Amino acid sequence: MGVFGRLGQLSLLLTPALEGVFARHGLRRGEFDVLAALRRSGSPYTLIPSALAKTLMLSRAGMTNRLDRLEADGLVERRLDPTDRRSFHVALTDRGHKVVDAAVTDHAANESRLLSALTPDERETLDHALRTLLQAIE
């Protein structure tokens, strides 16, 4: 029970620390996740919505809501697929690229700060243990 108690307490403490970083860039965590997935996809930073939804484990409706907000903010754009006009791709705009790069930089610095009590070996051990637990539960 101690492990899950500590994990729960960490979740309560980490959530606002993470959300604060994203909010400084005008983002919610889910919006950051979409922008980061597009950024990780590499140039031209474009994916089809179903690939994004699968990567982020979202329903189509959930993905549509996030894309609508990001598009309204000028961070992504929907582009018709030139080979299939029934389909479209989601692409980072120049503004979206700048926002996500700045947010990723701040997120990495925040993560470093939050994990500073651990040695590099402890961080690696924690990462491995959490991955193993997550895979077993999923």
Comma- or semicolon-separated keywords:
138 residues, alpha+beta, Arc Repressor Mutant, subunit A, 3-stranded antiparallel beta sheet, 6 helices, 3 strands, 12% strand, globular
The oligomeric state is: single chain
Percent strand equals: 5-15%
Order of helices and strands: HHEHHEEHH
Whole-Å distance between the termini?
Answer: 20 Å
- Class of secondary structure makeup: alpha+beta
Main β-sheet description: 3 strands, antiparallel
* Rg for CA atoms: 17 Å
Q: Based on CA inertia axes, which overall geometry fits?
A: globular
Mean pLDDT equals: 94
User: Quick one: how many beta strands?
Assistant: 3
What is the level 1 CATH name? Mainly Alpha
Examine the coordinates and then state which fold CATH places here, giving the name of the CATH topology. Answer: Arc Repressor Mutant, subunit A
Unreliable spans: none
Total domains, how many? Answer: 1
Number of helices: 6
Q: Could you estimate the helical fraction of the residues in percent?
A: 55-70%
Strands ordered across the widest β-sheet: 1-3-2
CATH architecture: Orthogonal Bundle
| CATH superfamily grouping | Winged helix-like DNA-binding domain superfamily/Winged helix DNA-binding domain
InterPro entries: HTH_MarR-typ, WH-like_DNA-bd_sf, WH_DNA-bd_sf
GO molecular function: DNA binding; DNA-binding transcription factor activity
Keywords: DNA-binding, Transcription, Transcription regulation
Pfam family, one: MarR_2
